[in-house]
Design goal:
This protein has 60 residues and is mostly helical. It has helices spanning 6-19, 31-38, 41-48. It has one domain. It contains 3 helices and no strands.
Length: 60
């Protein structure tokens, strides 16, 4: 399932970085923290790899 907005794609990228140990999970806030706790690394990778071209800033 691809990300539906730029914000969702960026939150997934932050959560993925925390899953991989690149950043501390304590640095996550809001949607990225929720994604970190509820999604697998594979799901996060799929969201984070979505192209941002043509996506709205935020999902309506």
């Amino acid at each position: 399932m691809p990300a539906k907005s730029k914000a969702q794609q960026q939150a997934a990228g932050a959560a993925l970085a925390a899953k991989r140990g690149e950043i501390s999970k304590d640095e996550l806030v809001g949607a990225s923290r929720d994604m970190f706790e509820s999604m697998s690394e594979e799901e996060l990778e799929e969201f984070a790899s979505t192209s941002r071209k043509g996506k709205p800033e935020h999902k309506e």
